[in-house]
Write a structure and sequence with these properties.
This protein is an alpha/beta fold. The chain has three domains: about 350 residues, TIM Barrel, CATH 3.20.20.80; about 55 residues, Oligo-1,6-glucosidase, domain 2, CATH 3.90.400; about 70 residues, Immunoglobulin-like (Sandwich), CATH 2.60.40. The protein starts with 5 loop residues before the first helix and ends with a strand. Helices cover about 25% and strands about 15% of the residues. Helix 6 packs parallel to helix 7. The chain is globular, with a radius of gyration of 23 Å. The protein is built from 15 helices and 19 strands. An eight-stranded parallel sheet has the order 9-8-7-3-2-1-11-10. The protein has a six-stranded antiparallel sheet with strand order 12-13-14-19-16-17. The structure holds alpha-D-glucopyranose and magnesium ion. Alpha-D-glucopyranose binds next to loops.
Length: about 525
């Protein structure tokens, strides 16, 4: 196999910039804060950072409502601060990936201000405007991902505009070639500044059915579930034309060296893999969220890994994600014991791993008092447990005040109550902490190319254990994971294998008895 590219062998670390490190005492994280923590990231052993949006934004959706694609929100710093961050990251061998949000702009973006000004405006068609139905209802039955209809009536021009998310996030019309050209120019702007790639927000939603047909109702939807589930998303998502749009973005990246296009996609595997694109000219890494969505069950996980591997197109590079800013954290989903096993799984499967900041500390579901809620989704559909704040709380650096995240009286979201115990400094000093496990796993990946670029073979999966092999050339490693809280016996021929790493960080050397302890994962050399 040829030398792997950085985005194939490397590990990506997602930073939610509002919550990583505040440098100016306003209670919100910023670019200089991130820059001051680069040494931590290189110590941890990741290869790239992906930063959620940092552009000027009214923050209706905390930056996913962009008012200027080529600037930096003053809350986060300036373009100069950004350049300094990229330069210092690159000097340490760290790549920088930006979040690109092309499905919608902010309603304060100058493009939308023009578009809504009159039906005759040159930018009218940059967004999706339609007449309502004769009875005054919206143009179709599509729902917003954040609750309520996906259409808002605009008095000024007596038409409705489409917004897949908040009404403050009008959808761009990607059927319009001027929109494509303007957005490709945005990619160029950042690529020229040295950005190493983009994570493209909701890439599978970019183009909608041309006739904007009604979605069919979802028979499985029940009251108490999010509005978006009322209908099946047949005409507002995953349209065939989306692949041309993505190919266009990819062409922009391909004019530069080794840049990466990552797509956020929530679709079943057989649809997900189409996003590699024809001739693999699509997203190099269509995000694979199966480990986030699956039940924590060895046979199910074994099946989904095999299914995923089986569906990959020739030349398609796999990837795995364990958490992000929209989902409950891994420790909240599987508990702190299994979070260690999950870390080993993420970092030993075949393909690029993406880590979410704070998961390496074992952060779980942080309690958010009602009056501290920030997430607009939680505010729109309260009480359904949809809020994303519990996974977006400040990073915890030491046992001091606000865990050294900020010097402000109050951070924008509360910290985990346990921050005096669960923080980088404290956990780094403990030889067997989860943080040390992440560090050891990332180091192991660097030492063993079988882990970063070797083949994958499932060896066995029973009720509680998952065993697979990673091999490259003469090197053959076996990963054995116990997804349960009872010890489990492994196949006899693993007796005598060399233990390269245990999730418990308490044994090395020869595996005298082929037994996995409770909640233990092992990397073995047979
Ligand atoms: C994506 C982002 C999410 C955001 C939404 C709208 O799903 O990950 O945080 O709210 O898109 O941009
Ligand atoms: Mg700040």
């Amino acid at each position: 196999m040829a030398e792997p590219l950085w985005w194939q062998s490397g590990a990506i670390y997602q930073i939610y910039p509002r919550s990583f490190q505040d440098s100016d005492g306003d209670g919100v994280g910023d670019l200089d804060g991130i820059r001051s923590r680069l040494d931590y990231l290189t110590w941890l052993g990741v290869d790239a950072i992906w930063i959620s949006p940092i552009y000027p934004s009214p923050m209706a959706d905390f930056g996913y409502d962009v008012a200027d694609y080529c600037g930096i929100h003053p809350l986060f710093g300036s373009l100069r601060d950004f350049d300094a961050l990229v330069a210092e990251a690159h000097a340490r061998g760290l790549k920088v990936i930006l979040d690109f949000v092309p499905n919608h702009t902010s309603d304060r973006h100058p493009w939308f201000l023009e578009s809504r000004a009159s039906r005759a405006n040159a930018k009218r068609d940059w967004y999706v405007w339609r007449d309502g139905k004769a009875d005054g209802a919206p143009p179709n039955n599509w729902m917003s991902q954040f609750g309520g209809p996906a259409w808002t009536y605009d008095d000024a021009t007596r038409q409705w505009y489409l917004h897949s998310f908040l009404r403050q996030q009008p959808d761009l019309n990607w059927r319009n070639p001027q929109v494509r050209a303007a957005m490709n120019a945005v990619l160029d702007f950042w690529l020229r500044r040295g950005v190493d790639g983009f994570r493209v927000d909701v890439i599978w939603l970019l183009i909608k059915d041309e006739a904007l047909r009604d979605n069919p109702p979802n028979p499985a939807w029940q009251p108490g579930q999010a509005d978006i589930g009322r209908n099946l998303q047949v005409y507002n998502a995953d349209q065939p034309e989306v692949h041309e749009v993505i190919a266009g973005m990819r062409q922009v990246l391909d004019r530069y060296d080794e840049r990466v296009l990552i797509g956020e996609i929530y679709l079943p595997v057989e649809r997900l893999v189409t996003y590699y694109g024809k001739g693999l000219g699509g997203a190099q890494l269509p995000f694979n969220f199966q480990l986030i969505l699956a039940a924590w069950d060895a046979p199910k996980i074994a099946r989904l890994i095999e299914e995923y591997e089986g569906h990959l197109p020739p030349g398609g590079w796999p990837n795995w994600v364990l958490g992000n800013h929209d989902q409950p954290r891994i420790a909240a989903r599987v508990g702190s014991e299994q979070a260690r096993v999950a870390a080993m799984l993420l970092l030993t499967l075949r393909g690029t791993p993406t880590l979410y900041y704070g998961d390496e500390l074992g952060l779980g579901r942080v309690a958010i008092p009602r009056d501290a809620v920030q997430d607009p989704w939680e505010k729109n559909e309260p009480g359904l447990g949809l809020g994303r704040d519990p996974s977006r709380t400040p990073m915890q650096w030491n046992a001091g005040r606000h865990a050294a995240f900020t010097t402000a009286a109050k951070p924008w979201l509360p910290l985990d109550a346990d921050h005096a115990r669960m923080n980088v400094e404290t956990l780094r000093a403990q030889p067997r902490s989860l943080l040390k496990l992440y560090h050891a796993l990332l180091a192991l990946r660097r030492r063993h190319r079988a882990l970063t670029s070797g083949s994958f073979k499932l060896i066995s999966a029973d009720a509680h254990t998952l065993v697979y092999e990673r091999a490259l050339g003469a090197e053959r490693l076996v990963v054995a994971l116990n997804l349960g809280a009872e010890p489990q016996r492994l196949s006899d021929h693993l007796g005598g294998a060399e233990v390269l790493l245990s999730t418990a960080l308490n044994r090395e050397g020869t595996l005298a008895e082929p037994i996995l302890r409770a909640n233990e994962g092992l990397v073995l050399r047979p």
